[in-house]
């Protein structure tokens, strides 16, 4: 990610340095947004919201053009944005202010179905790659609150690593609702199969209702990928780990392949 490097001659005061950093950060975000793809620096955890809430939403509402986002869906309450990181990586971001996986706003009845929207956004990955990924080649991922740089919920939409797709093959025909443990990329995960990505099968709700009372959603990471060649028949796999799980992790993003080697 972009980081501000110290110049040989630093500003004469901390206040002046902070002003310079803020100005540079704003200019970087603006420049990247103009390209239609955004990579945000960790010095502004609200940068992603500033792009979506302050640019994409008003542009779509007032001008009929969602730029720098690829699309803004007011009815479903999310935007899709090309991330500068990765060959074909997109982000699904709520058009409401939603902090992340720990937010209660993702669990109430009738809350937006972000996972279904993220899966549908896989078409933008296909368009970028000029090929159609199979369901087992497409992955969606969200990080725990401790493993993210942005305080706005965002689901990564990108290619799966080939070796991880192969490692998940034994779980593709599991009975829905049952969890089994797996070791993926050296970390401990559990895997279940669902037949939809909405309502009770919304992965946020699937994970939340399976947690013990002492466990928190804030520490969880979730990855979703197709369970087989036809999601209408095979459904999806929900892959879950946690920051505070022994041998676990708060990020499953490493199970994705931002280079999309499978498309080469």
Automatic annotation (TrEMBL):
Its EC number is 3.6.1.26. It is a single-pass membrane protein. It holds the Pfam family CDH. The lineage of its organism: Bacteria, Pseudomonadati, Pseudomonadota, Betaproteobacteria, Burkholderiales. It is found in: Cell membrane. GO terms for cellular component: plasma membrane. GO terms for biological process: CDP-diacylglycerol catabolic process; phospholipid biosynthetic process. Pathway: Phospholipid metabolism; CDP-diacylglycerol degradation; phosphatidate from CDP-diacylglycerol: step 1/1; Lipid metabolism. Keywords: Cell membrane, Hydrolase, Lipid biosynthesis, Lipid metabolism, Membrane, Phospholipid biosynthesis, Phospholipid metabolism, Signal, Transmembrane, Transmembrane helix. Its main location: membrane. InterPro entries: CDP-diacylglyc_Pase, HIT-like_sf. It catalyses: a CDP-1,2-diacyl-sn-glycerol + H2O = a 1,2-diacyl-sn-glycero-3-phosphate + CMP + 2 H(+). Residues 1-33 form the signal peptide. The keyword Cytoplasm does not apply. One of its GO terms (molecular function) is CDP-diacylglycerol diphosphatase activity. Belongs to the Cdh family. This is CDP-diacylglycerol pyrophosphatase. It comes from Paraburkholderia bannensis.
């Amino acid at each position: 990610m972009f980081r501000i490097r110290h110049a040989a001659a630093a500003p004469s005061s901390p206040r002046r340095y902070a002003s310079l950093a803020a100005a540079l950060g704003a200019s970087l975000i603006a420049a990247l947004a103009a390209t239609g793809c955004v990579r945000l620096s960790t010095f502004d955890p609200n940068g992603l919201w500033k792009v979506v809430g302050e640019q994409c939403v008003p542009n779509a509402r007032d001008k009929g053009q969602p730029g720098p986002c690829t699309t803004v869906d007011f009815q479903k309450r999310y935007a899709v944005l090309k991330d500068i990181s990765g060959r074909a990586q997109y982000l699904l971001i709520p058009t409401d202010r939603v902090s992340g996986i720990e937010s209660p706003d993702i669990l109430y009845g009738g809350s937006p179905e972000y996972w279904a929207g993220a899966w549908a956004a896989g078409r933008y990955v296909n368009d970028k790659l000029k090929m159609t990924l199979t369901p087992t080649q497409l992955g969606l991922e969200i990080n725990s609150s401790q493993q993210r740089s942005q305080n706005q919920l965002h689901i990564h939409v990108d290619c799966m690593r080939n070796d991880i797709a192969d490692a998940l093959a034994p779980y593709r025909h599991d009975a829905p609702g049952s969890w089994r443990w797996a070791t993926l990329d050296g970390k401990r995960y559990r895997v279940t199969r669902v037949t939809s990505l909405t309502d009770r099968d919304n992965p946020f709700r699937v994970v939340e209702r399976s947690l013990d009372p002492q466990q928190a959603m804030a520490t969880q990471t979730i990855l979703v990928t197709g369970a087989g060649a036809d999601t209408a028949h095979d459904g999806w796999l929900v892959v879950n780990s946690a920051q505070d799980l022994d041998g676990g992790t708060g990020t499953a993003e490493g199970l994705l392949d931002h280079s999309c080697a499978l498309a080469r």
